[in-house]
Queue: 2 jobs
Job 1
Amino acid sequence: MKIHNFSAGPSILPQEVMQQASQAVKELDESGLSLIEISHRSKAFIEIMEEACERALQLTGLQGKGYKALFLQGGASQQFLMSAYNLLEKKAGFVNTGTWSTKAIKEAKLLGEVSEVASSQDANFNYIPKNYSVPSDLDYLHLTTNNTIFGTQIKSIPDTEVPLVADMSSDIFSRKFDYSKFDLFYAGAQKNMGPAGTTLVIFKEDALGKVSRSIPSMLDYAVQAKAESMFNTPPVFAVYTSLLTLRWIENQGGIEKIGIKNAAKATHLYGEIDRNSKFKGFAAPEDRSHMNATFNLTDPSLSETFDKICQTAGISGLKGHRSVGGYRASIYNALPIDSVEVLVDCMQILEKEY
Amino acid sequence: MKIHNFSAGPSILPQEVMQQASQAVKELDESGLSLIEISHRSKAFIEIMEEACERALQLTGLQGKGYKALFLQGGASQQFLMSAYNLLEKKAGFVNTGTWSTKAIKEAKLLGEVSEVASSQDANFNYIPKNYSVPSDLDYLHLTTNNTIFGTQIKSIPDTEVPLVADMSSDIFSRKFDYSKFDLFYAGAQKNMGPAGTTLVIFKEDALGKVSRSIPSMLDYAVQAKAESMFNTPPVFAVYTSLLTLRWIENQGGIEKIGIKNAAKATHLYGEIDRNSKFKGFAAPEDRSHMNATFNLTDPSLSETFDKICQTAGISGLKGHRSVGGYRASIYNALPIDSVEVLVDCMQILEKEY
């Protein structure tokens, strides 16, 4: 049976990427060796790393604009710490839009003063704060552009003189965007980019060097940049598979085209959530994420029935996060619209038959 | 042509492990989904992580002895920092046996006082210091059990009342050993355990909680232990492939049997290095590594000729590190003795024909 994979992350990747990655683990490009047994200092792997970094800059429109791309380890959680280590001298500001922002705030507090500039905690993070003022004395303002758990997404990046830093783990490469508004952004691979195990970090090169503390080597962007993401052995498989996905995005017509497809999938799904009497959306309509749609049953006693309908249709990974309950459909780049249609069918079956 | 892979790391893994890993990227256990697209919170992956941690403790003889195993990210380089963050309150001691020890010392210095208890830097690290005295006021003494670059290996663990910490990246699971002598040891996967991208850390649970500083979440062993290696998304592919290798080690008869095979490979190769007039070993004979054999030509002008002989025979990854020059044959667990025999043949061809 075909599985429709709505997992929040690790999550669906393009079928051809998984096939190519599988083949490379067997043998990389007729080299007689597996991808995972070659030296990271070999010509073959250095080319993989270089191409991955170049494509990341190209797709975000930042090539030749003074930015640097790195593939590191540790996930966004390590970036919560690392961004503060490298950029926080006195005070950083945060827009708190949920679990991940809260974790980022916690790590930054170890290294300096933190100002929570805005928060949507008053409504269990079901909306994106707007019209807040940004103090001018911040070293940077940190945003979470998409909130996987709550299903909200920042549609408009605030205009401010303060440097912007963003966690884009769950919506990078999903929509057209002025990435040059940011001094630094990062994204764990395991949503729209690749398997778990690597994290893309892109930063403006002149944003570094402004803090006075000693930075441990592994947490120092300058050290990692000087070593071209290879200060130590990089996560070879995760970087290679991310490169395959970046090539796939390019073949799809780049992120503008991908963004149009994602909007179509989201419109279809949210349309059904709003129309269907058995369901209600969780996030404020104007802030709804195009990556993670969160919704609940109007009658929670139907959950077992709906779960069964979904299971029969081959739907996987739809359970909502415990902070929200209900359902979460993660509709990342690689999820085909067919899968969304199957989910909509299941929602209609519930409405008609129960 | 069959390739004989002598790479220092990432390095050869068992053929069956690479086949199984490749298959899992296509589809995990007839689940209809790839290993890399399932949730790390799924039953399937939680079982993978649990089995990997259990097997690591079993193979090292530490199960039920108050130890905990974790699979983290960041490589040994991150452990240089993390071990100091968690264990260094006042002063740590280091036996400096080369590049990796030196890097570990550098990171520890950010967090406390460091005493270099012994060093072999006086002879370009070609031996392991012995008969040094260990000050009793150390929080711990850090060793590098095997030195990939210089080809030396600690044969006898010092007896001391001071807690021992070790970087075992390049010889873990390669020989029988009293692992309970250590309070903490760690190993990047990419030599004897799996692909680059995960790091095994094993520690005595009561060794933690003795420092007064605040530890960032990602660098806190207690946080990672409480979350069973899943404080954030783990490097799924690297952990799974490591598990496959741990199963393979078990099927080989465990590390005692593996150690006997490794000794046979090493004896064969060092025997030829000593016998053959064209070569000389780099490391002190009593400290020679069973994992990385370093050797040089007696007549360096023959290097192009020897390289050509090796290339014709399908030998890959033999170039020595720039700190030592010459050659380095990494003969990790998964390297078959046939490959060592092919290398010895090449060495004999050079001696006979040139």
Note: Chain B touches chain A through 63 residues (CB under 8 Å).
Job 2
Amino acid sequence: MNIPDVTQPRVVIVGGGFGGLELAKGLRGQAYQVVLIDRHNYHTFQPLLYQVATAGLEPDSIAYPLRKVFKRQSNIFFRMAEVEHIDIEANEIKTNIGALHYDHLVLATGSTTNFFGNAQLERYSMGMKTVPESLDLRSLMLQNFEAALLTNQLEERESLMNFVIAGGGPTGVELAGALAELKKHVLHNDYPDLDIRRMNIHLIEGAPRVLAAMSEESSAKALRFLEQLGVQVWLNTLVSDFDGQLITTNDSKVSFKTRSLIWAAGVKAVSLPGIPAASLVKGNRIQVDEFNRIPGLKNIYAIGDLAFMESEEWPQGHPMMAQPAIQQGKLLAKNLRAQLKHKKWKAFNYSDKGSMATVGRNLAVVDLPKLHFQGFFAWFVWMFIHLIALVGFRNKLIVLANWAWSYLNFDRGIRLIIRPFNPRAGMGKAADNRS
Amino acid sequence: MNIPDVTQPRVVIVGGGFGGLELAKGLRGQAYQVVLIDRHNYHTFQPLLYQVATAGLEPDSIAYPLRKVFKRQSNIFFRMAEVEHIDIEANEIKTNIGALHYDHLVLATGSTTNFFGNAQLERYSMGMKTVPESLDLRSLMLQNFEAALLTNQLEERESLMNFVIAGGGPTGVELAGALAELKKHVLHNDYPDLDIRRMNIHLIEGAPRVLAAMSEESSAKALRFLEQLGVQVWLNTLVSDFDGQLITTNDSKVSFKTRSLIWAAGVKAVSLPGIPAASLVKGNRIQVDEFNRIPGLKNIYAIGDLAFMESEEWPQGHPMMAQPAIQQGKLLAKNLRAQLKHKKWKAFNYSDKGSMATVGRNLAVVDLPKLHFQGFFAWFVWMFIHLIALVGFRNKLIVLANWAWSYLNFDRGIRLIIRPFNPRAGMGKAADNRS
């Protein structure tokens, strides 16, 4: 049995995403007692959630048990819990499983779907930030096709076969592409008594281009790839409302009848009660200094999507994606190790490794800092990088087997409705509560 | 698009298990319009559910989309639906998606957990007949360990770490063995701050031996394997009640404090409203003749677990397992094909291929009709047969990868609580409703 050393200072990490995981790994074997808490007992590899939603990957191959990461680490303790309140005066967090004292508190809870205060959108559209949400989306998509078979009303059938994605960032683009490939290669075999040509995939983006954070070149190429696959892209268009049946936009001439709106048009940092409002900036993010410390709070840090660190190069903070979280987690571990040796802390300096998105089979776009490329080679690089980044050898193996299978057979093998989704129970909200 | 040929006689198959699937396959390309209905959109490979429940396999690798089985089959139509009533006068079934006329109706809905009328047991114990039930069991097991960490009361902690399985048939034996291996190889790494030696696995069987349907030799060997792995086996013992905390048995000196009772002590055929009570025999099964016809009903057949076919060799009907279902499905397809050519029907003659069960790594028992063997070679045969029998090459590939991984690493990699299970909502019942 593993008895905690109570003389060691305690580092509490909230959140086992990319940042929290990297930080905890960096404190292995150090003279800290590390407590990692997360509301799930697993790490989610969010970049591949869209493949779970489109029946290409098992949920179990992109989730990794957090306890397994830290087996045989005598100074790291995991607890499945949710933070309810941070008591900055008492150096204590309140959770649903009790209170916990900290010497250092690292907040790494990431981001959640942002509906910008529109309750109707939150109720009727589907988010895709967690494994259960992706499974709900998979179920809903398949249920809609089963339902489409049963109706003789053309309008209703088309509405069931219409899929609308709000947000042309990487998530929206990758999901739209994957749905288009399902249509092209799989669904006409599954539903021979349905006219799959009537299935439509719409991607709605408020900016004048998709993948607005990438190079103009990649944006243009991604748009061409999407159109090539049959996705209908609506640029300069903003969803204004959705009542579960009809989507209206800022353009009175553009509306969509559909049963499925997938909301990938915004994220915001997860709220943590107890953090003073003065520390919060745009999108609920927490302002931090160059060491990821929250100014004015003692021994509290924020990393990853949650952290807003202003710099000359990044006046709007770092992009809310895996790389800044990983690099900040790594550096904070290094700084906490330096502290044990009474050495100086090092300031964060983001090394931009670029960004990428895949639209479909052989179709991806990659922006490296000094090189942009698109097409088959980009797609290959995308796959390679994602396989490398996946946590756990078992998961890499299973994902590779699935990708090889899907590539050779033009298939998405996991078209299962394991837990049927009930749209009447409300979408975004309900999925969150159940997760 | 695939337009049904309305001049063909319609065969309606209810249930996409082993029997229904085999029957539908045997009618491919024949002059019948085949409608297969199932409440799930997938076939479940039930023999491996216990590995899903114990984090060894993804649910998605033992479930197979029914539509995928029949792609490009122009005479086979799938509908996801549940039968509500059979109108034998009108040759019609009523389902939750509407009424359907049949020329031939084949009932293949299989069996469900039998709580023998004990509502308390049904409420508090866990069944393991469907994929969602197995996932609930996986979640509950992991949740109980997370909860055990949080209590300082020894009695409560032990109750959370006690697992009791009622029923020493193949399901109970395989599940008990898999739990024992989790304890032996995995859980002490996951929960270093918990004394895993206090975890107990109890297997309760009413008969004087486990695997009572197999040879004495295999029973004795299976018992020895179980004890070798640390499972506590209670023979000649019957569970009488369970209130969610305490299991009582027919022996007043034997009771168990636990939060998890897994009920593998009985199955019964699924009820189908509209079938006359006179057709039903013990365990809710439907009496059929040697052609799987239900005497007195016109063009209605039952196959598999549901069918009770008396014969000299099998006075109690055939065993409720995959082989009789597969063989009956195959023969009924042949007979329905013969009917098209106005040929004579062939009577069913069960070819007993034997039975097997696996207790753990290198430990299995196999009874072939003329040969019984146990140990490593039996375990190898068990794996080989199950891989062959799995539906779909993708699933075989993923299961093989998982097995190789687990074997080499003494691991069960999928220790995920994707959807937390709420025991207060009621167990067997709730899981059924949600499935």
Note: Residues 10-39+81-113+268-340 of chain B form a domain with the FAD/NAD(P)-binding domain fold (CATH 3.50.50.60).
